[in-house]
Amino acid sequence: MGSAIILECRDIAFERDDEPLFEGVSFSVSPGDILQVTGANGSGKTTLMRLLATVLTASAGDIHWRGKSVSRRLPAYRADMLYLGHQPGIKSGLTPRENLQWLVSLSGAATGIDAALAEVGLADYADVPCHTLSAGQLRRVALARLLTGGASLWLLDEPLTAIDRDGIDTVQTLMARHVAGGGAIVVTTHQDLALTGVRRLEMARYAA
Asked: In terms of pTM, does the model score above 0.90?
């Protein structure tokens, strides 16, 4: 674990339809950290990830990035964070290469699209329309995004869903390389990770 905290949650709470889902969620993440968020379905794992991704807003508490509230540094935080949700976020009418080119153009941090597709096993499908790909291949297109930008914080919500054993190994290799290089990861998954130094955050502790 690195010494400098890059992400910190302070007493985060969230309400859904005026009913509290969780409260008092507090943790910090430093360079080199992997934090696995665990809990039963409906415990708020995905909601917490969407809060961290600034897709939702907490009903209480605050999220800090590099020592300052995310609300005060939103553009900089979003530029240094990459969120992969349950859905791959891929345009079905485009090819994998075209999808990555489009996504990279939004972030402005473009490197190695072809190399990224090769690493996730899609070199032979780079120019095939995404609507012809399987769910697992679409997930691999989304995972290739991790290799085409320079975000230091990865927020991965069930990244091992819909991929085979080789795909799972690839994801964990990417995760290990990212934290070895000083990045940090918050991840939800029901599967055990074959990675060292994984910390766990159990959402049942914060049930409202």
From this structure: yes
Here the tokens at position 156 are: 């991965």
Residue 147 within any structural domain of the chain: no
Q: Which residues contact 40 (CB under 8 A, 6 or more apart)?
A: 204
CATH of the domain at 69: 3.40.50.300
Domain count, the chain: 1
Per-residue H/E/C for 9-51: EEEEEEEECCEEEEEEEEEEECCCCEEEEECCCCCCHHHHHHH
Q: Evaluate whether residue 124 is within a structural domain.
A: no
pLDDT at site 1? 45
Domain range for 75 is 1-80+154-159+185-208
d(Cα 126, Cα 118) in Å, to the nearest integer? 9
The sign of the dihedral angle between the CA atoms of 26, 19, 84, 108 is negative
Specify if 119 maps to a domain: no
Question: DSSP E strands: which ranges in 66-142?
Answer: 68-69, 81-84
| Predicted local confidence at residue 18, as pLDDT | 85
Residue 207 domain flag? yes
User: What are the tens digits of pLDDT across the range 93-130?
Assistant: 999 999 998 887 766 555 589 999 999 999 999 999 99
Q: Running DSSP on this structure, what letter comes out for residue 96?
A: H
| Contact present, 63 and 69 (Cβ < 8 Å) | yes
